[in-house]
From TrEMBL:
CC terms in the record's Gene Ontology section: nucleus
InterPro entries: Fyv7/TAP26
Region Disordered, annotated ranges: 1-44, 73-112, 131-166
Protein name per its UniProtKB record: rRNA-processing protein FYV7
Phylogenetic placement of the source organism: Eukaryota, Viridiplantae, Streptophyta, Embryophyta, Tracheophyta
Species annotation: Rosa chinensis (China rose)
Pfam families found in the cross-reference section: rRNA_processing
Biased composition (Basic and acidic residues): 1-18, 131-157
Amino acid sequence: MKNRNPKDAAINREKSDGSKSVYNKKKNPRRFGWQGRSLENSTNSYYNPAMIKKKREFYDNAKHVKKYKKLVKQQPTDVPSAIIPLEEENETEDGSKMSKNNKKRKDRESRNLIEIYEKKHEEIEKARMEKEAKFQARKEEREKSEARRKAIREKMMKKTHKGQPVMKYRIQHLLETIQGSMNKS
């Protein structure tokens, strides 16, 4: 039979609750990564886009550094010296040595750069001119439609010397709108 004495139950409860509370105390830090959140973290846990941007930038930079190191590691170190051909060297006016191949390469590179710059500049200029032409056409169209609306409005507002509206223009406008709708359908 069960012991129904309240004193015994209270004693048993204290022992069992005590062991469970210690167990729970040990279990909670494991759940939260062995640490609770600091007061600083909980008070400053608002949305901060600058911090998010900094973190993203940091990880992007780390990714690029990792890729660079990987590429450097893959390239053999002594191969570049074997690849470079022996160049003919000539002395210039200063007495310094300069290779013919190097000089030719620099000339070609400068010409290529100039050509690239000119092409890019022409494309930009062409795009600007097209944009300007579109803008001008739109502006002219707007002015024409505005003038047409103004003329129609003046005709619609005309009145006789007795103050009555001139029906000729109103009827003409109705006729034009009906004909326009008939042509569309």
